[in-house]
Amino acid sequence: MSVDQGSAATKSELAYARVREMILTGELAPGAVLNQAAVAHRIGISTTPLREALRRLAQQGLVELGAHRDARVAPLDATEARDLVELRQDLDPLAAGLAAHRRTAADLAGMADSLDRLESLPDDPSPAQLAGHRRFHAALYRASHNALLVEVLDGLWDKTDRYRRHALRAGRSDEERARRAEEHRLLVEAVQDRDAAAATELMRRHVETSLAARAADRLAAADATPRTRR
């Protein structure tokens, strides 16, 4: 049965998807105060479904809600960035190792297709380019055939995208982009060859040298730098 496009639930979903996209792509900057009336007008809805969407985004750590219905985009945080990297240093390699053991022909086809369509991320990536990287990693996660692990990693990806964008602002060399592309190719080969040890180690290095790890280092360094008084 189709959903009524005018229903409150549908409008809330629309608001959630649109604001989430605006946050993850940097259209709404970290720490930005959200004028709910202006955001609702921009999306083409009332503030009621927008507030429901903001509550959902707050639960995911992308929005902070204050008193009197104040809201702002959650700022980037060095501790959160570190926590994300630490989690992914264990969970991503686990998924890669399980994928090498459990992958099916359909899983391999999905990974190969997503690899073929993968673009190296520029300094200011588009939503489609970011989605391409998510598609590749999601295909590998699904090949683990561990539904709870896939769910957790999928949730971490949303938070991590903001830190990837932060790291990309500093730029990357062509050599580094080529190295990341080679890592993606080798990961697919290791899973295809059922080489769990290689897949696990490749993914661990991939996370340790990731954009999120670079963002964590940059944010920690910024926090440690004394601010000049004016």
User: What is the fold-level CATH name, i.e. the topology of the largest domain?
Assistant: Four Helix Bundle (Hemerythrin (Met), subunit A)
Biggest beta sheet attributes: 2 strands, antiparallel
Strand order, main sheet: write it out. Answer: 1-2
Put simply, the count of helices is 10
Number of domains: 2
Protein name: GntR family transcriptional regulator
Domain HTH gntR-type: 9-76
InterPro entries: GntR_C, TF_FadR/GntR_C, Tscrpt_reg_HTH_GntR, WH-like_DNA-bd_sf, WH_DNA-bd_sf
Pfam families: FCD, GntR
Structural descriptors:
230 residues; mainly alpha; Arc Repressor Mutant, subunit A; two-stranded antiparallel ribbon; disordered N terminus
Explained architecture:
It comes from Geodermatophilus maliterrae. InterPro entries: GntR_C, TF_FadR/GntR_C, Tscrpt_reg_HTH_GntR, WH-like_DNA-bd_sf, WH_DNA-bd_sf. Pfam families: FCD, GntR. Residues 9-76 form the HTH gntR-type domain. This is GntR family transcriptional regulator. Strand 1 and strand 2 form a beta hairpin. With 230 residues, the chain is an all-alpha fold. The chain has helices at 8-24, 36-43, 47-59, 78-102, 105-116, 127-142, 147-168, 174-192, 196-208, 211-224; strands at 63-65, 71-73. The chain folds into two domains: 8-73, Arc Repressor Mutant, subunit A; 78-222, GntR ligand-binding domain-like (Four Helix Bundle (Hemerythrin (Met), subunit A)), CATH 1.20.120.530. Helix 5 packs antiparallel against helix 8. The chain is globular.
